[in-house]
Design goal:
It is a single chain. This protein is mostly helical and 74 residues long. The protein has two helices and no strands. The radius of gyration is 27 Å and the shape is rod-shaped. It starts with a helix and ends in a 9-residue tail after the last helix.
Length: 74
């Protein structure tokens, strides 16, 4: 493996501290963008589920309170 040969003679702190910091600095914007998109998508899914649940609750409450409508109307 080429990566093991490059880091073989270096101290442990270079491998476990410096390399991850460099990667976070270089790719930090991309990682933050990916997390932002993921969190935004999850938030939209939660909002959609809450709105759908609210509509279902209102429809069941309204259709349950009116005596003229029944399930056979559908």
């Amino acid at each position: 493996m080429a990566g093991k040969g490059i880091l073989a003679g270096l101290p442990w702190w270079v491998t476990w501290v410096v390399v991850p910091i460099v990667l976070i600095v270089v790719f930090g914007g991309m990682i933050a963008t990916a997390f932002g998109i993921l969190i935004g998508l999850l938030f939209k899914i939660l909002i959609a589920a809450a709105l759908i649940a609210g509509v279902v609750y209102l429809v069941r409450r309204i259709s349950g309170s009116s005596s003229s409508s029944s399930k056979s109307d559908w």
